[in-house]
Amino acid sequence: MLNILLIEDSGVFREVEVALLNKIKNSNLTIAVNFNNSLEILSRQSFDLIICDYHLPDGNGLDILNFVREKNKKDKKNLNVPFIMVTGNNDVGIVKQCIEKGVTDYLVKPLQASTFLQKCSQALCIAMPKY
C-alpha cells in the first residue's frame, strides 16, 4: 500500500488533486489543510509521496520540505521520500530554493491532470493511471 500525503489549503484545488490521486491504485491518501496540521501528521507517520502547496495560511511548503528532510535524516529512514511542490507562484527564486532543498518536482497551478498524474507516478515508480 502506497501512503500519499496531500498538503493543500485551497478547497477547490484539494478537490481536484484528491480526485486525481484516487486514481492511483493500492494507495492510501492522507490530507493536511495547513502547515501545523501537516507537521502533526508528518511527526507520526511516514509517506511514499508528499504533495505540498507552497503557500499555506500558517507557513510554507519549503519549511515542510525542510522538516521532512531533517526528520528523515534523524530517523535514518526514507531519506529521499519524493516531495512535489505545487504552487500558483512561478517565482524563479522560490523554484531555486526548492531545488536546493531537495524537492523532487515543482508544478505550477492551474494543474494539468495528465502532468500531475505523470509526475506523481514517476515519483512513486509506478505506471501512470488512466484518468
Keywords:
Rossmann fold; 131 residues; two-stranded antiparallel sheet; 44% helix
Task: Give an overview in words.
This protein has a single domain (2-124), classed as Rossmann fold. The chain is 44% helix and 23% strand. The chain is built from 5 helices and 7 strands. Helix 4 links the parallel strand 6 (83-87) and strand 7 (105-108). It is globular.
Name the poorly predicted regions.
none
Intertermini distance: 20 Å
Major sheet size, sense and barrel closure: 5 strands, parallel
- The CATH topology: Rossmann fold
Please write the string of helix (H) and strand (E) elements.
EHEHEEEHEHEH
In the CATH scheme, the class would be Alpha Beta
Report the structural category.
alpha/beta
- As laid out across the biggest beta sheet, the strand order is 2-1-3-6-7
Which word captures the global form? globular
Number of domains: 1
The CATH homologous superfamily is termed Response regulator
Tell how many strands the DSSP assignment holds: 7
Number of DSSP helical runs: 5
Provide the residue-averaged pLDDT.
Answer: 92
Rg over CA atoms, rounded to whole Å, is 13 Å
Strand content: 15-25%
Q: Which CATH architecture?
A: 3-Layer(aba) Sandwich
Helix content: 40-55%
